[in-house]
Design a protein that fits this description.
The longest helix has 20 residues, at 42-61. The chain is of the alpha/beta class and 280 residues long. The radius of gyration is 19 Å and the shape is globular. It contains 8 helices and 10 strands. The protein has helices spanning 6-22, 26-38, 42-61, 89-103, 147-150, 163-178, 196-206, 218-232; strands at 2-5, 71-79, 82-85, 127-133, 138-145, 154-158, 186-194, 247-257, 262-269, 274-279. It has 2 domains: 2-23 and 64-145, Dihydrodipicolinate Reductase, domain 2, CATH 3.30.360; 147-272. The chain has a 4-stranded mixed β-sheet. Strands 6-9-7-8 form a 4-stranded mixed β-sheet. Strands 1-3 form a two-stranded parallel ribbon.
Length: 280
């Protein structure tokens, strides 16, 4: 049985929510650089340069890349041989998020009720998805998800006869409708399969697909490449000013589903994917 101290877990969560909101990943800077080099539109190139500069200033000053510091979302793979010494894992995550958003001076964006809309004052509660795995591993992926892009996401209960082209058309329709609202260049997470609630989770997980162990699938890779090409031909461009880069990435995840269904969900993220994987 592997023991993890409660206070150690709290500190790691606290530090992580601050880091992902203030420090751009090397992958993001690389995507900015590639897009800047590839862009012919002078205005769009300047927008990309400004986005990159903003991210680098955030890192230098340890201030948020975006004022919307998001909902804290967690994907947990919890080993059956793990013991949290001194508390419960969900309590540690709640406390880590609370401390991170308060001590990191991150905007608190969660309201206690969708109708009354009183701010909770500490960005709680987080959204937590937990999967039990064998062994002594505790893997945590944390994602800060802003509302501007989340609001542009969509779900459709399609039928099997809609096929691959139906999936692609739905993704294209969703991105066209979103336009400049989710702060492009965007990342597009696509979930296919499962059921009504499961496909939305798949699409969210697809946004951080690179942090999970996934089996390479030729069909999925082909769909991703084709969608990325088609979406970048829409000429939405950085922040909606037109240009060659409307999306940075498209990621697709699939699961089994009912014979009569083909659920599809599209979860959109802005140009900054704020995420990190924590391994104990």
């Amino acid at each position: 049985m592997k023991k993890i101290k409660f206070e150690d877990l709290v500190k790691v969560i606290r530090d992580s929510v601050i880091e992902i909101n203030c420090v751009p990943s090397p992958e993001l800077i690389s995507k900015y650089n590639q897009s800047i080099e590839n862009e012919d539109n002078i205005l769009s190139k300047q927008v990309l340069l400004s986005l990159k500069e903003n991210a680098l200033i955030a890192k230098e000053r340890m201030i948020p890349i975006c004022q919307d510091t998001g909902t804290a979302v967690f994907f947990i793979e919890y080993g059956t041989e793990i013991n949290i010494d001194g508390g419960f894992i969900y309590d540690a995550i709640y406390e880590g998020v609370r401390l991170g958003y308060q001590e990191g001076y991150l905007r608190k964006s969660i309201v206690d009720n969708p109708l009354n809309r009183k701010n909770t004052g500490n960005n709680l509660p987080p959204i937590i998805h937990t999967k039990l795995i064998e062994g002594e591993n505790l893997n945590i992926v944390v994602l800060a998800k802003g509302a501007g892009s989340e609001n542009m996401s969509s779900l459709k209960m399609m039928t099997p006869s809609d096929g691959i082209e139906g999936i692609k058309n739905f993704v294209l329709e969703t991105v066209v409708k979103a336009g400049p609202n989710p702060c492009p260049p965007i990342t597009v997470g696509v979930g296919v399969g499962s059921n009504f609630e499961g496909v939305a989770l798949l699409a969210k997980k697809a946004l951080v697909k690179d942090l999970f162990e996934t089996v390479e699938d030729d069909l999925i890779m082909e769909i991703e490449a084709d969608l990325k090409m088609k979406l970048n031909e829409l000429n939405i461009g950085p922040q909606g000013f037109g240009g060659k880069t409307s999306v940075f990435d498209v990621a697709v995840m699939m699961e089994p589903c009912h014979i009569a269904s083909m659920p599809v969900a599209v979860n959109i993220n802005c140009h900054v994917i704020r995420h990190k994987k924590i391994i104990f």
